[in-house]
Amino acid sequence: MAAVTPVMARELAVAQKVCVRPIMRRVIDRDTDTDQRVAIPCGSTRESVCPSCAHKARILRMQQCAEGWHRTEEPEQDSATATATRPDDLLEEGEPGPDPVRGEDSQDRARRARSTRRRDDVCELPRVTPSSTTVGAVYSAPNGREYRPSMFLTMTLPSYGAVGSGGIPLDPDRYDYRRAALDALHFAKLVDRFWQNLRRCAGFKVQYFATVEPQARLAAHLHAAVRGAIPRQLLRQVIRATYVQVWWPSFDRAVYVDRLPVWDGEEYVDPDTGAALPTWDEALAQVDADPDARPVHVARFGKQADMRGIIAPSADAERAVRYLTKYLTKAVADPISDDADEWDPAREAHIDRLHTELRYLPCSPQCANWLRYGLQPKSPGAGLAPGRCPAKAHDREHLGLGGRRVLVSRQWSGKTLAGHRADRATVVRQALLTAGVLAPDVERLAADTLSADGHPRFVWTDTKTDPISYSRVILESIAERQRWRTQYEQAKAAGGSVDDRSATAQPP
User: Positions of the region Disordered (predicted)?
Assistant: First the structure.
């Protein structure tokens, strides 16, 4: 029989949902003086990197979305989610908010006072008495049936120019790439402001599970599962009235292009005169002192928005959960459709134009690109150079969307993503134990297992793998997964029905 090549092993691993690029570790058992190689899943969320791990990550997000969407009781918060950074907008991992990489921190806002009067070109928003509830209201139908609807909401950024099929600009020279890039860089703050405004107008702590995805034209749009029903007229009003003003120093004119500022050990100075560049605080003070100063950018949502009611359990709710998580495994620059050509010169040119614009735009107060405009970034250090900011928002893969792709409010399900992952593992163990099958010993090589001498029994070290060893490890992982899957299916058949989504009882 011919040997299994790495390519064959990878294709088989993808088919069996086994990690195709595992992290290899060598584990030495000090008690038996033996060693073995252990393959640890890479955990990537990108299909282009590892389809199997990306699939598992998407399934976990689907569970998280479904579990919190149509709750009828307030979720109980565990200790990991009970700590909030802000009383009006409790943040969980992945939710946008005050981030020193993307904007001002709380100390900056405390020192710098600016008028909170709303812009003249936006409408005022209503204020209602706030409520601490997070679940939606109950409605009664004429037949006496009670139901608690929720919502599916889609919002996007405005137009930057006419586009044709595939989202390609009809006239790239007239397409506003600069505005598109700036909107992408500040999209997370715009989304955060929307939820703040909506909660103040809706009168309860609106909870959501949202995903950020690129349209074909590469502009970001947001899909959100919103718990509870909110009048569509109010939603449209909040969308129109939501904006983010960026009060930064001007970056319209490049000062250093062919020559770059020099780090003298304490600050950046002009390479010719040796004069220190203005600091970030000095530049902001100048903006504050100018009575005619205007924000360098104002981000708003576009006019297109879609909102519809969803009632669970229903086929519509299940389809909406799948749609919400459909593109989470793709990078921003990846083709939206699986049927799209892998190489489209017009699309690649569109991506290149947007990426070129993003390369030198500042993404945050700490961005190295401020040196290009004759200004020292906040908290400068040696080695900074314009066009080489390490923030992922400048990467071609992200195209300005440097934040997380999944945004989840803290009181969505009362659990962190790790908690949902533990639930899924507990489901498997309970099913196996009910059927009298020993669950896989996940701690069989635990680093905290001690020998008789009180020292760790298992010693973990890094190891490299060759193509032959790679194929063998992948095949062993596939065989192990198939064995576990067979045991689990037999346990489910012997032990009755099993809730595949969670190990905890959920409200009906």
Answer: 69-124, 489-508
